Amino acid sequence: MSPQLLVLASTSPYRSELLKRLKLPFVTASPDIDETPWPDESARATSMRLSKEKAAAVAANYPDALIIGSDQVALLEGAQIGKPLTHDNAVRQLRSMRGKTTSFYTALTLLNTKNGHMQTEVAENQVTLRDLNDAEIEAYLEKEQPYNCAGSAKSEGLGIALMSSMRGDDPNALIGLPLILLTKMLRNEGVRLF
Asked: Phi/psi at 117 (nearest 5 deg)?
């Protein structure tokens, strides 16, 4: 079997860096989809739907490829938390999260466009923030500026200092791409990792 092209349906630099760890050649493509949650849609369901939509959005351009779609949704006290995008939104997010546990649902889809086979699973992580004061929140945001990260903190960077605990299926999922699930899915498609 000739190796299929591997496509990451994402422009996220974090997902791209994670995928590079597998030492497999890949290309990236922008899925350009609406990521708005549907009314009454659970965080888990939103992440799964969006990961599938991202993979499907680029499928027509790659007829013989394995396409990776991934999406992460954070949930705090029943409310979905997205990317803050601005400093003020990030301050509000971190204030609401301090001393509490937030659940992160990172869905992964692998779509084989040659045969239409699609695999989708979700990795879950729970992150508890320390009871941060406002000065700590401001100082962190000034240093790392995590405005394009759901939950306003980067666990792979200085954001780890905000956390009192982290539990979950895969620490890479918290950064944006569940590599444990991905390697399993790639093996299911006959991809040799070694």
From this structure: -70, 130
